[in-house]
Design a protein that fits this description.
There is one protein chain. The chain has 163 residues and is α+β, with helices and mostly antiparallel strands. It has one domain: Nucleoside Triphosphate Pyrophosphohydrolase (Alpha-Beta Complex), CATH 3.90.79.10. A four-stranded mixed beta sheet has the order 4-1-6-5, sandwiched between helices. Strand 5 and strand 6 form a beta hairpin. The longest helix is centred in the N-terminal third of the chain and has 15 residues. It is globular and about 50 Å long. It binds 8-OXO-2'-deoxyguanosine-5'-triphosphate (8DG).
């Protein structure tokens, strides 16, 4: 095997088996940019007592073992917001890949414009419907910052399509 290829393989093995490299705890979270007919985005505030309390995030949560990201998101939206979403109405938009102090977050972000049910914060979390202009007034977790531009684009695209 050529030396370069051998080095690449060794690097891969170290990353996947732990080898000499530092182990990374990878956390898979799935989240949604829920956009309503007035082109506003739903943000949820992280409650007191949790990590990053007070920051505004995209609704969602951890993907359980054996679950697809879409199934996890459908479940989380039912549990957190009491709404029903069809997997086909979840459009992949972008993802976050961010290293926090104690874990690495990998978070696919979907856009959803269609749901049923009466939306409410089931866990008592504060919710806000936010216009593109207001979005910068809502402090978000570090991982979410690079997602703001694509989300704004999706909000604007919806406005153009429905105009
Ligand atoms: N749902 C969501 N989570 C986010 C966003 N940005 C971000 O860094 N996260 C982080 C916060 C948490 O560490 C993790 C979400 O998992 P979670 O909601 O199940 O975790 P949690 O800390 O609220 O609660 P727990 O179940 O671990 O007690 O992802 C976001 O926009 N939406």
């Amino acid at each position: 095997m050529p030396e370069q290829q051998q080095q690449q393989q060794q690097q891969q093995e170290q990353t996947t088996t732990g080898g000499q490299q530092q182990q990374v705890k990878m956390v898979l979270v799935v989240a949604v940019a829920l956009i309503d007919s007035q082109h506003r985005l739903l943000l949820a505030q992280r409650p007191p007592g949790k990590a990053m309390a007070g920051l505004w995030e995209f609704p969602g949560g951890k993907v359980d073992a054996g679950e697809t990201p879409e199934a996890a998101l459908v479940r989380e939206l039912q549990e957190e917001l009491s709404i029903q979403v069809e997997p086909r109405d979840l459009q992949p938009l972008t993802f976050a890949s961010h290293t926090y102090d104690s874990f690495h977050l990998l978070m696919p972000l979907y856009v959803c414009r269609k749901w049923s049910g009466q939306l409410r914060g089931v866990e008592g979390q504060q919710l806000a419907w936010v216009s593109p202009r207001q979005l910068h007034d809502y402090p978000m977790p570090a991982a979410d910052v690079p997602l703001v531009a694509p989300v704004l684009q999706a909000m604007e695209a919806g406005r153009t399509i429905s105009a």
